[in-house]
Structures are given as structure tokens and as C-alpha cells.
From TrEMBL:
<keyword id="KW-0408">Iron</keyword>
<dbReference type="GO" id="GO:0004748">
    <property type="term" value="F:ribonucleoside-diphosphate reductase activity, thioredoxin disulfide as acceptor"/>
</dbReference>
<dbReference type="GO" id="GO:0051539">
    <property type="term" value="F:4 iron, 4 sulfur cluster binding"/>
</dbReference>
<keyword id="KW-0411">Iron-sulfur</keyword>
<dbReference type="GO" id="GO:0043365">
    <property type="term" value="F:[formate-C-acetyltransferase]-activating enzyme activity"/>
</dbReference>
<dbReference type="InterPro" id="IPR034457">
    <property type="entry name" value="Organic_radical-activating"/>
</dbReference>
<dbReference type="InterPro" id="IPR058240">
    <property type="entry name" value="rSAM_sf"/>
</dbReference>
<dbReference type="InterPro" id="IPR012837">
    <property type="entry name" value="NrdG"/>
</dbReference>
<keyword id="KW-0004">4Fe-4S</keyword>
<protein>
    <submittedName>
        <fullName>Ribonucleotide reductase of class III (Anaerobic), activating protein</fullName>
    </submittedName>
</protein>
<keyword id="KW-0949">S-adenosyl-L-methionine</keyword>
<dbReference type="Pfam" id="PF13353">
    <property type="entry name" value="Fer4_12"/>
</dbReference>
<dbReference type="GO" id="GO:0046872">
    <property type="term" value="F:metal ion binding"/>
</dbReference>
<keyword id="KW-0479">Metal-binding</keyword>
<dbReference type="InterPro" id="IPR007197">
    <property type="entry name" value="rSAM"/>
</dbReference>
<dbReference type="InterPro" id="IPR013785">
    <property type="entry name" value="Aldolase_TIM"/>
</dbReference>
Amino acid sequence: MVALAFIMIPWAALVTVRTVSRAKGDVLSVFHPTTDQLKETNAPADLIMRVAQIVPRTEAEGPGVRFAVWFQGCPLRCPGCCNPEFLPFAGGEAKTLGEVLDWLDRTRAAGAIEGVSLLGGEPFAHAAAGAALARAARDRGLTVMVYSGFTVEQIRANPDPAVAALLALTDLLVDGPYERERPDTERRWVGSTNQRVHFLTEKYHPDDPCWRARNTLEIRVDRTQVSVNGFPAPDAIGLWKPKWARKSGPREQK
């Protein structure tokens, strides 16, 4: 689990947020899948996905405006995980692939987006659903970014064909477990210094200025709650995420 978060806090909460992170790091690697690795993922529309949260338009979870999906369930237990509510596989909400794609298409109709970001939880623990969503995103001309607590070496060693399919459909991968004692304050969209950014296709390049911009948090307010997603400063997590914070499952956001 990497250091990025989605929470929903009852309206009564007073939330204080600050971020201190600038991207300059060079711990980057470049991999390019071959054409035969890009396997078709023909999943039915009624394929069930276990979803913790969806933010249909965000600029805090990767380059450009993105449709971000947090999967519910992770086999890892990284100390200091920002999303402990998303670790149990029994939580979240069951969504069909068709429902998520309908939401994605409505979001695109309302305004251009650049891609889809898959977070968690652990996306590669939901590889079949993740690959199906990634294929659908690619078919719509969108890019795919995945955050994983596993390293790319562990992912490639996994014999599950769905894991290989999801990796082959990924443009950007942030890999490795979040390490609370090694916060990264130099690179954008990265939680700790052990984690790496892998540029798996030609869609993105490490020299792009977007990697040198500041990290951000996004705060959304409605009549019942405050929702926060993005990358917090390590010493600010306790301020904006009280122990009693709750989530209400994925729902429509404007």
C-alpha cells in the first residue's frame, strides 16, 4: 500500500491539510512491453469488482485529470498505510464492470480526462477486474496508471495470467511497499523513497515537467461529509485523518 489516501469525514470534522513535496527524484526505470504482451481482456459487463472508492475526476492521483478507482482488499500490511479501511477484502462495495464503465463514460462526456488510476487496497490482488478495466480504458484512448505494494519483479514472477495482463496494459506503475520511516519529499505521486516509477510505454517520460510539480491534496465538500484524496505530508496525516473517520463506499461525485 502506498502513501496516498481517500477518506470521507463527517461534516462535523475540522480538517487541516498541508503538503510539502516536490518532485526531483531520479529513481526511475523504463520498460516497454512487446506487442504480444498486450493480451485482449474480454470480460463480461457483469464481472464483479470489489470497490472501496471512486473519484471520477482528480488531478492528485497521476498525470492530468484522471478517473481514480480504489480496490477494496490488500494482502499487505504496510505500517502507516493511509487507507487501512481499504485492507479487508470483505469491505467496500460490489460494482459490476459495466457500472464502473458507465460511470467512466459519463465522466468523459462531461469533460476530457487523460486516464484511469488504479489504487487500493492492492490492484494486483484484483488483477482480473483491474485488467478488464484497464483494457476498457485503453480502448477509450485513456492511459492507465497503477499503484502497487508489490515490486515489478514480484509482479512479473506471478504466474497468474490476469496479473500479466494488467501489467501489460499499464502505462505507469508505482511499485513497492510503503515504508513509513522513508517518506519521499522529492518526487510527485510517490509515497516513500524505496518506491519506483516505471514508465512501461511511450505515453509518459521521466523528463516531463509534471514529475517536478508539487504534490497535492483535494478536498470535496457536500452537505454530509468532507472527502480528501491525494498525498499528505507525513507529519500532517494525523491532522486530516482522525481515528473516527469513516467512509461510505463509492458513490456519485460531482
